[in-house]
Design brief:
The protein is mainly beta. It has 2 domains: 45 residues, no CATH class; 79 residues, OB fold (Dihydrolipoamide Acetyltransferase, E2P) (Beta Barrel). Helix content is 7%, strand content 42%. The protein contains 1 helix and 8 strands, in the order αββββββββ. Strands 4-5-6-8-7 form a 5-stranded mixed β-barrel. A 3-stranded antiparallel sheet has the order 2-1-3, covered by helices on one side. Strand 1 and strand 2 form a beta hairpin. The longest helix is centred in the N-terminal third of the chain and has 9 residues. The chain is globular, with a radius of gyration of 16 Å. The mean pLDDT is 93.
Amino acid sequence: MAYPLTYIEFYEGLKEGKLLGLKCKQCGAITAPPKICCAECGSTKVEVAQLSGKGEIKTYTVIRVAPDGFNPPYIVAMAEMEEGPWLMGNLEGVDPDNLPEKIIGSKVKTGHKVIEPALYTAGEGVAITFSLV
């Protein structure tokens, strides 16, 4: 069985400014990042769909002890996209030591950043980012 949307295609889409996911032909749910089947009903009848990239922060944490290649402190957030799936990414443009009073519920848009190869990695990576709107 061929993957309709591989992780490589997902990350290449991010680099081109597109947030891609999978739309289930059975239940209509959107799954992102890509998986072999629908995250809601398990159907493998899915097709590639472009998402709006707009969402709302549901939770976050401040990373103060980071893995190799990352510079703490930084914010990792979970955001619910308008189309339904939740995505995890770095919240950029916000000082981790001086957060706005009400960050949960804030509207965001997705972006990306390229992560340079580091020790113990398989090469360049791409991370989802969020910025406040």
